[in-house]
Structure formats: C-alpha cells, structure tokens
Specification:
Radius of gyration: 27 Å
Oligomer: single chain
Number of helices: 11
Number of strands: 23
Strand order of the largest sheet: 10-11-21-14-23-12
Largest sheet: 6 strands, mixed
Structural class: alpha+beta
Distance between the termini: 40 Å
Helix content: 25-40%
Amino acid sequence: MWAQRLGRALVTRSSCRWISARIVDNSSIEVQPEKDSRPLTFPGVWLRDNCLCSDCFHDTSRSRKLDWDKFDTKVRPVSLRTEDQKQQKELVVQWSDSHESRFSLQWLQERSFEEKRQKSYLEDFYRPTTKHWAGAEFPSIARHFSYEEVMQKDSMLLEWLQTLAVHGVALLRGAPLDEGVVRRLAERVGFIRRTTYGEEFVVQAKPGAQNFAYLSLPLPLHTDLPYYEYKPSVNILHCVVQTESAGGSNLLVDAFHIADILRRDYPEDFERLSRVLVDWNDIGSEDGREFHNIWRAPVICLDAQGRYTRVNHSVPQRDSHFNVPLSEVLPWYESYARFVRLARKDAHAFKTQPGDVLTFNNIRLLHGRTGYDDSERNSRYIVGAYLDWDIIYSRLRVLKKGRDARQ
C-alpha cells in the first residue's frame, strides 16, 4: 500500500522536481524520482542499516556505527514523508524500531539497485573494466603520456591511471635522467610498495647477482615476485641509460589475452592451470638480510565469478617442490608449456629510450627482455619501483570525484 495508512502516494512538487514514495510488501520502499520515471526499489533492511543519522553513522570518518549486536533484520518501514532541505529532496522514514532515517534523493539514486546503475558503478568507479589485447594490437592500445604533464595536471594523472587500469600498460616520456623519478611518480599517486629488494631498485648487469633480472642474459617472460601472497601490482621502470647494443628490448604480453585463448581453444589446459597449485619461491639475500619466500598459487587465478584476478609465471622462480598427485605432473607440464609457447609467440618487443618510464600491471602482463652487451662506456641502467592497485584505485576514485564535482 502507499505510505502511511492513507492509501495514496506521498508526493512533493516544486518548480522542477516531483517525488513520490510508497511502502511495498511491508518491507521495501519504492521511490519515484520524477513523474514519468521508473520507480526505484530499496529493501527496508538495507536502508535501516545505512541510516545516516548521528546515532548510526559517524560523518567525519564516513563509517557506520550502528550497533549490530542489537540490529533487527526484521525491521520494517511504518510511515514515509518527503521534505525539501536546502534545495534537496529528502525521504524521511519512520521504522518499526521507533527510529527515524533521512535519505537525500541524490544519495538514493547513486545507490540504486537497478542493474544499469550497478553495472556502471562496478565497471567504472569501483574498478574499470579491463580490455584484453593481442601483441599485434600493442601499437594501437599503448598510450604515451608526458611525464611533466602527469606530474603537474590531475587530468593527465587520471588519464594515465585509467589507461593502466583498462589496458594494463602506459609509457611516460620526457622524464629527467635522475634516480628520483620513480619515487616522485609513485608519490604523485600515493606511496611506493616496499619488497625484499627495497623500495627503489636498479636493474643492471652485475657480477654475483642475487636475482636473474640482474644479468645481461635474455630474461624470460614472467611476472615479478610470484612468490608473494600480496604481489606488487604495478611496475614502474625508468630508463636512465639504454644499451647501445642490439639487445635490451622489452617484451610484453597481456596474459589475460593468453588466458582467453586457453579458455576458448584449450579448456582442459585452462582448467588445469587455474586449479593446480604451484610452488613459487625466491631464496637469497639483499643488503645483508637473508630471505626465503614461498607462495602457492595457480598460474591463472580466478575470482568466484570466474574472472581473472592475476597471473603467476616465472620459470626461474618456480620451486622444485611440486606438491601435487603424481598423475597431475605430466598433464600440468603439457598445459604450462602451451601457455608459455602462446605467450612467447604473442610477445611484443620494443626498446625504451633514456627518459622513458614504462608502467604496467605486474599481476596481468608478462614482461621480459632480450639479452644485451654492456661496454665500459655504456652500461644499461634502469631504476624501478612498485605501486599497489589499492593505492592506485583509491587515487583514481578521488580524481574522478573531483572531476565530476567540477562538471
């Protein structure tokens, strides 16, 4: 029935606004924002849980403080009214637990349970939908940005981070040739992710290397630090000095695209690589500290809906311990070999130049490098650092809210 006991809608009119609300099935509230618009339905229990009054919500921390030890999931709306508050329409609800809640029309619309609105929220504001690409498409999807513009303009910072989220790779050009670039760029977003190898790290061929990347040999396609449970999300590689030899080219592959191929054309391999746990490890020392990192995870990691969350791959850092049934060993190797061959075939090669900053999604893209030769007067020198997606997504949302507020 319509709100209260009047048997009719509660309607508020103004020169440009019209709103009505009614109780549905004694448990939900239906709000019609405009006269000819589709009604929006909100479960009563959800509205009561999200009451914004000072008893239920701490405004400055934007946190719920409702006492859930006493929360009644059977709570129901008993009466409604609408009010004008500072040029803003509000829905006022009286509840069966004698509490009163107020919700602005804008707040309700932003949290509508309509599929279209939820899809927009999840695929843009929460986390932008990824677009997978083949190696041949790299020249068309890889965007170039000015380092100085990203550092100075929020609009360009937003575009760079959005590109990273969607395509997983972006190149910044024109950076100064000093070792502080990666830190300044990371702090423009948030802060550096520290690992076993410190905050910034230098990729340079050196004797007695503790990491395979610190050799001038060809570096096979891989993801960094697959032996971490919480892996660094985005790789920042600043080219300070590039080798003058024929080698030293970067290799990049969208591993989500390779997973798409496996899922479509080789479903048994896809199933195996997304199920069988692999032991990834790293043993060594850095700055006098010994470490022994191990994490067990499949090559292709999926969420509850079957969507990709990350890919793990590193031939050098796959442990000799393989804790699977004997019957699984050979089939897994065959599936893994197919994954590796498909990735290597699809790899796109290019060579960064001094002042270039290559940024890419470390839990999605595989990266590698062709071998090269240093000389006494020319030694390839790359400075790197990591960012985490939690920090990037947070910054991206803040930037989007600021942009929308200005429009």
